[in-house]
Amino acid sequence: MVEIKVHEEACRGCRMCVDICPTTVFAFDEEKRLCVVEHQEDCIACLSCAYICPSGAISQENYHVVKNFYRDLAFCTKMEKFI
């Protein structure tokens, strides 16, 4: 199973991971003003949360990499000039 960690010291509480997650893995803790992993078992390891997190507060472990499923940052950098 995928292991997801939100590093509390780095989390800004922007809720971008909550909004982008297609399987509602994250929730927002109003008391702490931080995002928390609520349903880790539902994670499909799309890595969208880690990709969009502006502070790099999210990390995943124990996921199987499927090349075409993940964002190729080198390719995206090359394509930026056309967008």
Instruction: Give the % helix.
Output: 10-25%
Q: What is the CA-based Rg, rounded?
A: 14 Å
Order of helices and strands: EHEEHEH
Strand content: 15-25%
Specify the overall morphology: globular
**Which sheet architecture does the biggest sheet show?**
2 strands, antiparallel
- The beta-strand count equals 4
- Our count of helices gives 3
Q: Name the poorly predicted regions.
A: none
Order of strands across the main sheet = 1-4
Query: What structural class do helix, strand and pairing data support?
Result: alpha+beta
Mean pLDDT: 87
Distance between the termini: 36 Å
Chain-wise SSE layout:
Layout (H helix, E strand, L loop, with lengths): L2 E4 L9 H5 L5 E4 L4 E4 L10 H5 L5 E4 L11 H7 L4
Antiparallel strand pairs: 1-4, 2-3
Structure description:
The protein has 83 residues and is of the alpha+beta class. Helix content is 20%, strand content 19%. The protein is built from 3 helices and 4 strands. Strands 1-4 form a two-stranded antiparallel ribbon. The chain has a two-stranded antiparallel ribbon with strand order 2-3. Strand 2 (26-29) and strand 3 (34-37) form a beta hairpin. The longest helix is centred in the C-terminal third of the chain and has 7 residues, at 73-79. It is globular.
Features:
two-stranded antiparallel ribbon; alpha+beta; 83 residues; single chain
In short:
This protein has 83 residues and is an alpha+beta fold. Helices cover 20% and strands 19% of the residues. The strands form 2 sheets. It has a two-stranded antiparallel ribbon with strand order 1-4.
